[in-house]
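Worked problem 6 (solution included).
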Amino acid sequence: MDESKKKHGLFQKFLDFVEWLGNKLPHPVTLFALLAVLTLVLSSIFGILGISVTHPGEGNEEVTVKNLLNAEGISYIFESMTDNFINFAPLGVVLLTMLGIGVAERSGLIGAALKAFVLSIPKNLITAGLVFAGIMSSVASDAGYVVLPPLGALLYLALGRHPLAGLAAAFAGVSAGFSANLLLSGTDVMLAELTSAAAAVIDPAYADSINVAMNWYFIIVSVFLLTFVGWFVSAKIVEPRLGSFKMSKEQEEELSGEDMDGIQTLQPVEKKGLIWALISVIIGLVLAALLVVLPNSPMRGSDDIGSYMDTIIQSPFMSSLVPIIAILFFIPGLVYGLVTKSIKNDKDVANQMTDTMASMGMFIVLAFAAGQFVAYFTESNLGLVIGVYGAQLLDSLSLTGAPLLIGFMLVTALINLFIGSASAKWALMAPIFVPILMQLGYSPELTTMAYRVADSSTNIITPLMTYFAIIIAFAQKYDKNIGIGTLISVMLPYSIFFFIFWAVMLIVWSLLGLPLGPDSPVHY
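Solution. The predicted structure is:
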């Protein structure tokens, strides 16, 4: 980071301190390994003490912390090690997506497309465009984490700006804006199901009326709010703090063959390649649509599910977006390479995919260590215990109105530092908070949206979020010494500003009594 570019206001000094403190942490691989060991030790201590909680979603079943250092636990550690690695959620998603992206990148398609994009869009809208694209990527589940941050970094680098600023803007949109979209996604379906089940404890009839679009109106407006806030934070805080970027000779050599041709007029062969790649994308999108939009399409959901939109959202197609996206990158990359002669035969394709996988070595090592920690944390029930005690603390404060919503969102943000999965957290919290807030006059839809605001806003500042490791790996392409503290200090302003503005918007929305979605009131 360019020290001469830093501004030393109070907030910037705070970010400097966060960066310094965070970078005192070990390497991410070591950190996850230490967290796994700490989880084992805590599981043993709490297990021996008999620490337990009542699971709100399992018929009031008593759940005790499991001791993973007794005979049974030690057997589990060794027997599960391989499965913990290969079942680590982001591993397959990242590697499969990168196979397609690798061909698109190394054939030159991404570089040419970036130049075309830069030449066609006003420079002052690029940051907003990145944040907006990141927010909208949640319709493709987690694929946005893999696709957009590295593209944002390359785009900024091509413009002569700091690549980490582009990565940060895209990451903020993808992760902190995960619960905002103009369209409905699988996240809406998953959360609606959990909310309905929790509401049924109080009012089964009302629970049956909860639909997947229960937060749709609010998340549509949220897209525009977060895009503006993300642009403001990028332009006024993050990029000025990062300053200018100077590449080492090693980086110039590494990147020169990929996307460092600079911003210049597209060559005729590049234009020809882009045209044919675009045609292949259009054909691919049409073929993909035919898999789901027509009656009796092979990857469409059952008509018994409900409306036409439900048969698309709750379909095998939506569950298969990661391989579909990989294919939609691979095909135009292949077409572009054949047209521009950067791909001459199948050996070139295989080599490009191999080179891409070689560049993912750091992430694979991180995935092994992180996979062990996540598995131990879940198996020991420590996450469940932390969540239940946090929820009980909020309940004991007897808050109402805006303070209640703010308190609930703060507890959600705290729990998010320990449990990365949105579905796991809501499966834990919904049975507790939905009935409590219903009895206080707040609708399940409002409770769910408050959860989504807090959960999304803080995703980008917890190293335990499953995709945090891959973002560090992307960032180290431009700064091999970047640590957890640096990334957190870069992303913290987004988290703070997103949380504040989004929470204020939700409170104002609730005070006005506006519906959150179709047939989705604020008050119960």
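Discussion: The radius of gyration is 24 Å.
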